[in-house]
Every structure is written in structure tokens, then in C-alpha cells.
Design a protein that fits this description.
InterPro entries: GPCR_Rhodpsn, GPCR_Rhodpsn_7TM, NPY2_rcpt, NPY_rcpt. It contains 11 helices and 4 strands. By secondary structure, the chain is mainly α. It has a single domain, classed as Up-down Bundle (Rhopdopsin 7-helix transmembrane proteins), CATH 1.20.1070. α4 packs parallel to α6 and α7 packs antiparallel against α9.
């Protein structure tokens, strides 16, 4: 999840090319194209990269901060599902503020300017946030599966939701810890051009890349394949249940709201999966030394990283597009208005008990879904 480790010394196994100047010479010192041929050093490319990262940071900070603000500010928005959405927004906000600026500068300068502490903390923070995001999406999918597929009237309480969120952060911190522990901040000297550089790179035990490959494979399964399989199964079951649901005419509005909410949350997962798949595959291929010989390895890595980071600002756009409450809230903030009555059941994550209405033939009070 961290910036490309262009200083990685896997070149030791390639005929003894363990020259610190490999840091300047592209992809891990393997058939290096040379510093001056690094396309990321071209002014036009750097302007594009700065613009792309700056837009992601700006949109991510504004969008995710608005989501969190609305859920805190307006009582009608404080539902269990929205709390989990706020948890997603907090994780994305962490990436936008604590990771992306450092990643951009390191990519442009090819030197770590931020000291030893941040060398350990920045990769950890980014991995932590990604773990929190996917675990929270999994929790949302399972909770909706439990409520919709099995028609359970008992919903999660606020306290339970906060305990679950605390659990996701704890588990995520444990899974991300190796990226903070097995990290090295060092100075590299290049006598040929009389230059001294500060480098931040992975350093796994025993001085080999085998542990890094094992970690990458494990994270690919735990952070991507297994959660997405669980989420996909849950949403497919939910969709089938709602599609086949036969209800009285008076309940069509409630079923439609559930369909809209489920569609929105499923789309969030699809966006996350689509954005992160290229980066995961390329990172894994890098650890297996399958793509390090590419002349433009660094540029490809950076582009895939930008695509992955787009997921940090797309979610608020999806909420505003597909959910009337969020759309109204965003407009109110930009217009400096304060109209809590603009939040209504038709656009919220609240719905009535289908079973209660069907049995009692009357409208029950809203309960959070």
C-alpha cells in the first residue's frame, strides 16, 4: 500500500548488481533504463500526477468530511447503517490526509524526506484504512443479509455498532502491523555522483523477499478475495429476496427503498473492488518479480495507485447520486442552510417492519436497517 520501493535491493540476486545507484535507475536495479529516462521525471508527467493526487485529496477530504458531519449533525441520519458508512468515510479521510501527500512527494522526489517515524507510520496507516474499509463493507453486507433475508426485527443497537467498529479497527491494525514493523529508513550514498539519499523501504526478516511474498498473498486473500466473496454472496441473496418479495400495494414503497439502498451499497463494493484489483495484482506480481523488468514500472505502479485511491472520494458521490438524504444534506451545506425537515423516510436508511405491517395492517414506526 506504500509508495513504490524503488530502493529495494532484490538486485542482489541478479549478478551482484548491489549498487546504491540502482535507486535512481528505475525498477529495482533490474535492466535499469537510467535516471534520465524515468518518465515520471518529465515535467508534463509530474504536473499530471500532482493534479491527479491533488484532486483525489481535495474531493476525498471534502466529500468524506461532509458525510461524517451530516451523520453527527442530524439526528435523523444516525442509523446503524449510516454509522458504518461514517466509519468508511473516516478510513478514506485517513488516506486522503495522512498518506497521499507523502506518497506523491516520495514518488516525485525518489527520496524519503519525512524521517524514520513516518517511514513506518505512513504505509501502516494506508494499509489500516484499506482493511477497515473492506471489513466495514463486509459487516454492512452481513447485517443487511441478516435483517432482509431472515426478516429479523431485532436490529443492531448503537452500542453494538460502535463495538463492531472498534473491533474492525483493532483487527485492521493487527493485519497492517507488519508494514510498520518490517520497514527500514536508511541513507544511501552514490559515490559516482557524490549524492546521499534517504530511503524508506520494506525489510523483511532473513534478508529475503520470501516473507514479503507470503504477506502479500495472505493480504490479497484476507483483504480482497475472501471479503468480496462473502459480500457478493450476501448481496446476491438480498437481491433475490427483494426481487421475489410479494407484498401488498401499500408496502411497495418500503421494498423499493430497500432495493435502492441495497443497490447503492452494492455499487460501493463494486467500485472498491474495481479500483483496487489492478493495484493488488500488480503489487503481487512485483513481489513475485514478474513485472520488475518493465521499463516504466514506476509509472505503471503510480497509475494503478491513483486508480486505487479514486475509491476514497467516489463513495460520497455515490451517496449523493443515489440517496436523497445525502443529496439534500450536501446541498444544504453548500448553501449554508439548516433544514432538518429535509431528511425524510423516502431517502433514508429507515424502513418499517414488513412483517409487522403485513400482520397488523397498519403503519409501524420506522426502525433502522
Amino acid at each position: 500500500m506504500s509508495p513504490p520501493d524503488t530502493s529495494n535491493s532484490t538486485s542482489e540476486d541478479e549478478g551482484g548488481e548491489n549498487d546504491p545507484s540502482a535507486f535512481f535507475n528505475g525498477s529495482m536495479g533490474l535492466h535499469s533504463p537510467g535516471f534520465h529516462s524515468d518518465i515520471t521525471k518529465h515535467l508534463g508527467v509530474q504536473i499530471i500526477l500532482i493534479t491527479a493526487y491533488s484532486l483525489i485529496i481535495l474531493l476525498g477530504v471534502v466529500g468524506n468530511a461532509l458525510v461524517i458531519y451530516m451523520i453527527i449533525r442530524y439526528k435523523n441520519m444516525r442509523t446503524v447503517t449510516n454509522f458504518f458508512i461514517a466509519n468508511l468515510a473516516l478510513a478514506d479521510l485517513l488516506v486522503n490526509t495522512l498518506c497521499l501527500p507523502f506518497t506523491l512527494i516520495y514518488t516525485l522526489l525518489d527520496e524519503w524526506k519525512f524521517g524514520a517515524v513516518l517511514c513506518h507510520m505512513v504505509p501502516f496507516a494506508q494499509a489500516l484504512s484499506v482493511h477497515v474499509s473492506i471489513l466495514t463493507m463486509t459487516v454492512i453486507a452481513l447485517e443487511r443479509y441478516r435483517c432482509i433475508v431472515f426478516h429479523l426485527n431485532r436490529r443492531l443497537t448503537w452500542r453494538s455498532s460502535f463495538l463492531i467498529m472498534g473491533f474492525t479497527w483493532t483487527v485492521s491494525a493487527i493485519l497492517a502491523a507488519p508494514l510498520a514493523i518490517f520497514r527500514e529508513y536508511r541513507n544511501e550514498e552514490i559515490p559516482s555522483i557524490d549524492l546521499r539519499l534517504s530511503v524508506c523501504s520494506e525489510k523483511w526478516p532473513h534478508g529475503t523477499g520470501r516473507d514479503g511474498v507470503i504477506y502479500s498473498l495472505t493480504m490479497f486473500l484476507l483483504q480482497y478475495i475472501i471479503p468480496l466473496a462473502i459480500i457478493s454472496y450476501a448481496y446476491i441473496c438480498i437481491w433475490v429476496k427483494l426481487k421475489n418479495h410479494i407484498s401488498p400495494c401499500t408496502r411497495n414503497d418500503s421494498v423499493n427503498r430497500r432495493k435502492k439502498t441495497t443497490k447503492m451499497l452494492a455499487l460501493v463494493v463494486v467500485v472498491f473492488a474495481s479500483c483496487w484489483l489492478p493495484f493488488h495484482v500488480f503489487q503481487l506480481a512485483s513481489d513475485l518479480d514478474l513485472v520488475l523488468r518493465f521499463k516504466e514500472y514506476k509509472l505503471i505502479y503510480t497509475l494503478f495507485h491513483i486508480v486505487a485511491m479514486c475509491s476514497t472520494f467516489i463513495n460520497p458521490l455515490l451517496y449523493g447520486w443515489m440517496n436523497k438524504n445525502y443529496r439534500n444534506g450536501f446541498l444544504m451545506v453548500f448553501r449554508c442552510e439548516d433544514k432538518p425537515e429535509s431528511f425524510h423516510a423516502e431517502g433514508s436508511f429507515k424502513t418499517r417492519s414488513v412483517r409487522g405491517v403485513a400482520l397488523n395492517g397498519r403503519k409501524d414506526g420506522p426502525t433502522a436497517v
